[in-house]
Amino acid sequence: LNPSTFYQYYVRAYNSAGNSAWSNSASATTKSGGSCTDECTPSGAKQCSSTTQYQTCGNYDADSCLEWGTATSCSLNQYCSTGLCITVPIPTGLTATAVSSSQINVAWNSVAGATYNVYRSTGATGPYSLIASPLASPYSNTGLTASTTYYYKVTAVISGVESAQQSTPASATTLSGPSVPAAPSGLTATAISSSQ
User: Distance between CA atoms of 40 and 16, rounded to whole angstroms?
Assistant: First the structure.
């Protein structure tokens, strides 16, 4: 048969008494001619096509060779590594410690291969604003207001993909500032000469 050609078939039975009526038709088109080379192997293998997308090896066209399929996106907070979608871990062990009236130190457990974004709010439910990125643990937040509670959340970033935030923030209250001194008491004045 010729490549890339449509063929239609009918069948009938016969014996010594004669031929039967024709059957229903069946049709098929031959595959394109020429040789081809597999782009990938084995079927079902996966590769990353970008930091957030992957492709699967398979036969998606008319020839008999394998090729990479259409890119599929990973889910939110996932990046692609060796063909697999990996969820960026949320940093654990988040703590906030006030060290002065204007500074709070924020720390967390490291995530392999990650940098971090630090978010801050003056209310537990937010809104949270990005105050530092990218950075490593720990982080010293300075220039704060005395006797004020601050709330922090931290995300990890791998291959440009950010993790989700902690469901519960870490918080600390800056120390109180210096008090106004009391007025001096017991003040006296005694003349001891015409000029002193």
Answer: 55
d(CA 165, CA 154): 6
In degrees, rounded to 5, the angle at the alpha carbon of residue 194 between the alpha carbons of residues 188 and 196 is 45
Q: What is the mean pLDDT of residues 73-98?
A: 97
Amino acid at 24: N
Which tokens go with 75? 């889910």
- Residue in the structure block whose two tokens are 């930091």: 51
What length does the chain have?
A: 196
State the Cα–Cα distance between residues 99 and 108, nearest whole angstrom.
17
Given a cut of 80, is residue 179 above it in pLDDT?
no
CA torsion angle 135 167 82 157 (round to 10): -20
Task: Give tens-digit pLDDT for 13-29.
Answer: 888 888 888 888 888 87
* This prediction's pTM: 0.70
Read off the tokens for 167.
């469901």
List the one residue out of 148, 163, 155, 44 whose CA is nearest residue 104: 148
* Residue with tokens 């996932």, as numbered in its chain: 78
